[in-house]
Records
---
Amino acid sequence: MGTQPASSLAVSVAVNGEQIEEEVPARRLLVHFLRDDLGLTGTHVGCDTGNCGACTVHLNGEPVKSCMLLTVQVDGAALTTIEGLAPDGELTPLQRAFNEHHALQCGYCTPGMLMSASALLERNPHPSEDEVRVALQGNICRCTGYVNIVEAVVAAGRGSA
Amino acid sequence: MLLREVDYARPATVDEAIALLAEHDGARPLAGGQTLVNVMKARAASPDVLVDLAELEELRSIGFGSDGRLEIGAMVTYAQLVSSSEVEVARPILGEVAATIADVQVRNRGTIGGNVCVNDPTNHLPPLLVALDAHFTIRGADGERTVDASDFFQGVYLTAVGVGELLTKVSVPPAVSGTGDGFAAVTIGKHGTCIVDAAASISDEGGVGSTEPLESRGAGSADARAGAVRVVLGCVAPTPVRATTMEEGLAGAELSEAVVRGASEGLGATLDPPSDVHGSADYRRALAETLAVRAVLQAASRRTA
């Protein structure tokens, strides 16, 4: 990455395990790089103001909002998007728990919810309800009212999806 | 959302970063970007050059200076403050308050340096750092200078960091015997933006009891009597406001609820807070008194032995 200012830079980033090298305009938000350049449209744009969490991805394992990052900032990093959670198409226990607990209605917030919840389960495999609520604070759902979402994550942690 | 075109650089050293900031008109440092990227979307700010501080490892450390102060690099994230054993030992209130800023995703990216340099009046850390008597180290082409909190915060989005300069670290004195810190806020939703907040810090220094050795004050007195008390309000003015009359009323006093409430009376009338959809000016005046009391009582309950 250059130490002299440029309006377009070569970015090298691992996305769901695949190394990507692309020249990217400095002003391009990460969420648009993922959706429009890479076609990974599972990452959603909800509010575009950093509030709703629908665009959450993992940056070096930690959940971040991809609408509040420039693509050039993730040069050299490893990203996981919702497409990377179940690369072979078989649902993870967390995804099955969402299914079984009816943790989605319209589904728009679901990718972000799953990314935040999976990051939580990585560092805390058996979270309490309170811990789940704190972890999902940055993710807004306008349909279900959160109860089933929280139940699903707690159940996935108990291994009783 | 499409941002205005911008140039971007990621310098490898602090000196390179300072040189870039000085060379380019309209250059701005980019820390975690949790404010700056959003204001760029809204075109409330349109920097020509972003100088990304991500590679500057020396700005990411937490440690202790030769004077014993807890030193926090400007690029330390809220998540780092929450999990730092140094912060936990020296000044745990910083981690506690950082844990209530926004949400997990923002805490993974947002930094202490960004929080104070933006100096949005609703930010948590400016009033807290005034209460903790923080010092701010600013580096420029001509070298380094350190300013205290009263000089650092100058206005909304305005601090002592000038053009071509960079905030490199924030330091606070470590808690010693008799120190206690508190923070209270009314927010828009849990962990949301503050409507009013108050920070308090109690120390044995400078108060009535400070010349007496601890043991001569008798059992229990260290828990009740304050030396100096700092009370600072956020969200009521462009910069954090010290409640000096309340502080004077509490210096050396026994910090019972009745005494603290008494000292807070009249504080609201000294303030000229804004009115907005979340609260009228009068409501903020009332909140200021209530939250100042809560912060001081919390600080009193947490004084170290």
Note: The interface with chain A takes residues 1-12, 16, 20, 24, 27, 30, 33-34, 37-38, 41, 49-52, 54-55, 79, 102-106, 108-109, 190-191 of chain B (CB under 8 Å).
---
Amino acid sequence: MTTAAPTPAVPLDDDASAGAVAPAFLWALARDLRIAFRSRAELGVQLMFYVIVVTLFPLATVPERTLLAALGPGVLWVAALLASLLSLPRLFAADFADGTLEQMALSPWALPGLVSGKIAAHWLTTGLPVALLAPLLGAQYALDGPALGTLTTTLLLGTPILSLLGAIGAALTLGARGGGSLLALLVLPLCVPVLIFGAGAVDAVHAGLGAGASLSFLGAGLLVAIVGAPFAAAAAVRIALE
Amino acid sequence: MLEVRDLAGERGLARLFAGIAFRLEPGRVLAVTGANGSGKTTLLRILAGLSSPAAGEVRFRGAPMAPFDPRLRAAVVFHGHLPALKDELTAVENLAALVALAGAQATTAELAAALDSVALTGRRMLQARVLSQGQRRRIGLARLAVLKKALWILDEPTTALDAEGTALLVRLLTAHLERGGCAVLATHQALPLPPERTASLTVAPRGS
């Protein structure tokens, strides 16, 4: 019984799953979506926040069509940014507190893959509903069809950037006291270009210039963020755990 | 399998321990003891590859390890203070998620059997929020039973476990050692482990 074999008899899982990205992404996405669905009241609150903020402006300002049409895109974008920011602290904080993040960092899967899955789930539960509600809410601002279309397209391109940049901030502020407000200070300035091109695209359509340039900038920004942000956020997660 | 040379650990700015050295062969367990705050958890986190040591090195299968080394991640299972359970998920969903995250595959029947073996048969479909602390720890034990990893790092595994749970842990650990696995265990409670397979280490601050 004590004849110790030179090779351990325990089979190891170190070949098949090492560094895998796709299963890591799907695992994190499915898990976060399931958890979000089970606590969907929270998601509803965020979405209601967005709807109410957007609705307050026409009530608080002069109900004049030209003024509202000029204000609309900016208001919708700022509200989308705030709604995204509202849910960002929870992106990693709960997993950090209950030890899931430790296990994720120790998983043989690639940590950037897991982080990407979490970011995708964050966007699907906050950014996507915000973008899809935009045509409805934009109608309050007397925006016409082409403007609404452009606004929704910019939100569809821009809100994933907010989730990706926000994830870096959320990972960097893990474990910091007052992490939520620190996160806002960190992420909001980074989101300025997204806001400018997002709201600017609608103005360009109004001015008859076409939204092509702004949309191209947003698309390029999205690609850069998709490639870079998960790695930066994963590095920040590891620093937070050490 | 695991070898440590002249290891020193810090928490914040305080040097907790220094000069730790040991060698752990397959089939052996190292029981780490020490007073509260002596650095047991810090040592275990360094061994699991979650933290970097202040000095010294950790070698696994002969190769020096940096934190989060893929070779270490493929072989280690870290069972710490935090259960990594989600309140919104059921016991079996939590177990399935943790097993998949560790890169292992298990069938539904295997997962159910693992929960049976830790006496959670009737609790499988309950959300983790309604489970007691001890029952939550038992999900962690079920994870140990399903995963086939070579190196177990167990930080206070008896916390919140009753006598039966502790006996279960000892059975799992003994079976693991007999299969040629090895383990590092931090505990305040002497566990009835096979003496010929057990080495012990006391973490104590050394004059700095």
Note: Chain B touches chain A at residues 1, 25-27, 48-52, 67-68, 70-71, 73-76, 78, 80-86, 88-89, 93, 97-98, 100-104, 148-150, 176, 178-181, 196 (CB under 8 Å).
